[in-house]
């Protein structure tokens, strides 16, 4: 069984939940940017949550199938078409040999997740099937999909009708609030800048991909100082350090960048805080122009939010199994 | 965010990261502390640690708080940090690489010309800029300074397999240069670059802001792991490696590039022990003895 790519979309890649153990040599975790949507897509087709799915930003691909199987589409909101007829997302859908799956424009959110029963059976590289295109590794030949690619599928379970209940589906908005834990090098910002960071409307620019998301808004001032040896001359520079996934850097005080799962692993810009892990899916589903507020939470708040999200997901997973 | 007696700073990168800043400024001693803590933490094999990333003067730990409570992780790292501070003879068993460099090559030169509007000095090359900034009188003099003393790989990252290197000389002899005013969108693969006090080798082609001095013919990142040197890992360098640059001309560059392509053994690498305090007592004398290993190796 395989899925053939008829049209690839803009930057469709194979992703699972990502890798660990390689960030120390500059190979990032990768994996689905909106992990909850990827997991739900898998559960809908009877896969383990960590099976490989397709992630398609802004525009879905057009796919055909070499035999009968089950698909599910989650994530951003778009019309899903099977042989030109609309089928539901957030549900398992039966497909037959030769069927064509295609998509309308994404009208809310920014990334579609497409799971097929059995998962995309590309080789495991460094413990994951996730694509890291910058390093040319993982996924399908280390790159985004192209027309004519044939993606092998694993052995899938038979069709079972499953639906994510309406109240458990995310409602994507053009106004987003992200919870952040301040820290890291935030002591380099002026007090005014910290206040501006937490009170401004940040508008997502078109520079938004798997590496990071860049936001427009007011300039943020860094405290003047005699720069430490090796840090570089700009007050936003530090001696090059490791970058957490979700960390917020402000190069030269303008246009903060939130790094995502294909992050550069380190560099010389001061990070002033980090988006909590369960809000990284909201970052992933932000389209350019999304107005974003950053609100400060403590580490304990972040851990509590994580526990809540886990228990809600566990209930949902039980209902879908 | 808390500061300890030693001046280190522990801070959470939300719920999945701990950053330990050993020092604000770059020193070999700070980097040694970072490497020692990273190594000791890795040896403990704590369940829930996903990545341990030593950086120049700081350390990033990525973890799963469902498996490892943040407070437990912090306490484990603090204990290790205190142990490391007790070591009176910090040393590392590591590898010494000789890396050939074709300085002043036409490829990085052409890319430099293309992005001159993003550079501090619109006329001339990055090498000429570096020469002038350091008050040297010729490009060969700069190349001699860049290639005579070895460099310690103080961090690997930014992109896959890219080494940051800190020259093993006293601070007043460090080469310190600004990055481009605005980053280039293009840097040839295997460019030897420099920004701040760090040298680097670009492992993949792409964006970059470091000054460009030359090219090495030897691959340092091989995701297909075709060459024998990459059998164990896709990346050549590890933090703690020591690198000695050797200037080569175009003919030797091309010969080495072709030999590497054919899968021949083109990497000169010997095991060495590096003793921090002995080095600090007499950097030049220590380096001379250290580099002697390449002659017998």
Q: How would you characterize the overall build of this protein?
A:
- The complex is a heterodimer of chains A (321) and B (297).
- Chain A is an alpha+beta fold and 321 residues long.
- Chain A folds into two domains: 2-168, no CATH class; 175-309, Beta Barrel (Cyclophilin).
- In chain A, 14% of the residues lie in helices and 33% in strands.
- Chain A has four helices and 18 strands.
- In chain A, the strands form three sheets. In chain A, strands 1, 2, 3, 4, 5, 6, 7, 8 and 9 form a nine-stranded antiparallel sheet that branches. In chain A, strands 10-17-14-15-12-11-18 form a seven-stranded mixed barrel.
- The longest helix of chain A has 22 residues, at 299-320.
- Chain A starts with a strand and ends with a helix.
- By secondary structure, chain B is an alpha+beta fold.
- Chain B folds into two domains: 2-87, Gyrase A, domain 2 (2-Layer Sandwich), CATH 3.30.1360.40; 93-296, Cyclophilin-like (Cyclophilin, Beta Barrel).
- Residues 1-5 of chain B have low confidence and may be disordered.
- At the A-B interface, strand 13, strand 16, strand 17 and helix 4 of A face strand 2, strand 3, strand 4 and strand 5 of B.
Brief synopsis:
The complex is a heterodimer of chains A (321) and B (297). Chain A is an alpha+beta fold and 321 residues long. Chain A has four helices and 18 strands.
Fold topology:
The complex is a heterodimer of chains A (321) and B (297).
Chain A lengths: L1 E6 L5 E3 L19 H10 L8 E5 L4 E4 L3 E14 L2 E3 L5 E3 L4 E17 L33 E3 L22 E8 L8 H9 L2 E7 L3 E5 L20 E6 L4 E3 L7 E3 L6 E4 L1 E5 L4 H5 L6 E6 L2 H22 L1
Parallel strand pairs in A: 10-18
Antiparallel strand pairs in A: 1-4, 1-9, 2-3, 3-8, 4-8, 5-6, 5-7, 5-8, 10-17, 11-12, 11-18, 12-15, 13-16, 14-15, 14-17
Chain B lengths: L1 E2 L5 E5 L3 E5 L6 H17 L4 E6 L3 E6 L6 H17 L4 E13 L2 H9 L11 H8 L5 H10 L2 E6 L6 E5 L23 E5 L2 E4 L9 E5 L26 E6 L2 H12 L6 E8 H6 L1 H14 L1
Parallel strand pairs in B: 6-12
Antiparallel strand pairs in B: 1-2, 2-3, 3-5, 4-5, 6-11, 6-13, 7-8, 7-12, 8-10, 9-10, 9-11
């Amino acid at each position: 069984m395989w899925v053939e790519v008829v049209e690839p979309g803009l930057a469709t890649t194979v992703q699972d939940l990502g890798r660990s153990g390689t960030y120390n040599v500059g190979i990032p975790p990768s994996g689905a940017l909106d992990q909850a949507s990827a997991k739900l897509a898998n559960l809908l087709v009877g896969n383990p949550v960590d099976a490989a799915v397709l992630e398609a930003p802004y525009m879905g691909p057009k796919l055909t199938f070499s035999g009968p199987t089950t698909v599910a589409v989650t994530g951003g909101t778009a019309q899903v078409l099977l042989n030109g007829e609309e089928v539901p997302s957030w549900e398992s859908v039966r497909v037959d040999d030769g069927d064509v799956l295609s998509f309308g424009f994404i009208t809310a959110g920014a990334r579609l997740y497409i799971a097929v029963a059995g998962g995309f059976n590309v080789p495991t590289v460094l413990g994951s099937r996730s694509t890291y295109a910058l390093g040319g590794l993982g996924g399908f030949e280390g790159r985004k999909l192209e027309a004519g690619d044939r993606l092998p599928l694993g052995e899938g379970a038979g069709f079972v009708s499953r639906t994510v209940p309406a109240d458990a589906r995310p409602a994507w908005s053009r106004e987003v609030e992200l919870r952040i834990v301040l820290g890291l090098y935030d002591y380099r910002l002026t007090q005014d800048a910290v206040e501006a960071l937490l009170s401004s409307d940040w508008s997502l620019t078109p520079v938004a991909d798997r590496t990071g998301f860049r936001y427009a808004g007011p300039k943020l001032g860094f405290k003047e100082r005699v720069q430490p040896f090796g840090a570089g001359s700009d007050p936003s520079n530090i001696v090059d350090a490791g970058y957490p996934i979700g960390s917020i850097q402000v190069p030269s005080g303008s246009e903060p960048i939130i790094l995502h799962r294909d992050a550069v692993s380190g560099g010389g810009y001061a990070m002033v805080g980090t988006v909590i892990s369960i809000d990284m899916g909201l970052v992933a589903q932000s389209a350019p122009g999304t107005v974003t507020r950053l609100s400060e939470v403590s580490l304990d708040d972040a851990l509590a939010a994580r526990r809540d999200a886990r228990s809600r997901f566990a209930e949902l997973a039980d209902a879908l199994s | 965010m808390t500061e300890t007696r030693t001046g280190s700073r522990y801070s959470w990168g939300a719920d999945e990261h701990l950053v330990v800043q050993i020092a604000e400024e770059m020193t070999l001693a700070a980097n040694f502390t970072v490497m020692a803590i990273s190594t000791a933490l890795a040896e403990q094999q704590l369940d829930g640690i996903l990545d341990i990333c030593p950086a120049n003067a700081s350390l990033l730990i990525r973890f799963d708080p469902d498996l490892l409570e943040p407070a437990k992780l912090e306490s484990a790292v603090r204990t290790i940090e205190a142990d490391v501070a007790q070591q009176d003879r910090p040393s590392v068993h590591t590898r010494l690489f000789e890396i050939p460099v074709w300085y002043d090559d036409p490829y990085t030169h052409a890319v430099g010309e293309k992005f001159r509007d993003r550079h501090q000095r619109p006329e001339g090359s990055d090498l000429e800029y570096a020469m002038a900034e350091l008050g040297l009188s010729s490009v060969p003099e700069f190349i001699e300074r860049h290639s005579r003393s070895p460099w310690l790989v103080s961090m690997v990252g930014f992109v896959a397999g890219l080494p940051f290197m800190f020259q093993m000389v006293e601070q007043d002899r460090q080469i310190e240069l600004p990055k481009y005013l605005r980053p280039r969108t293009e840097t040839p693969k295997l460019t030897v670059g420099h920004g701040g006090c760090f040298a680097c080798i670009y492992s993949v082609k792409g964006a970059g802001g470091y000054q460009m001095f030359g090219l090495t013919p030897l691959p340092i990142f091989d995701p297909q792991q075709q060459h024998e040197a990459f059998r164990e890992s896709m990346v050549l360098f590890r933090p703690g490696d020591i690198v000695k640059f050797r200037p080569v001309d175009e003919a030797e560059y091309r010969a080495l590039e072709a030999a590497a392509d054919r899968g021949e053994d083109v990497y000169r690498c010997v095991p060495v022990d590096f003793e921090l305090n002995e080095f600090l007592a007499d950097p030049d004398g220590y380096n001379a003895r250290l580099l002697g290993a390449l002659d017998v190796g």
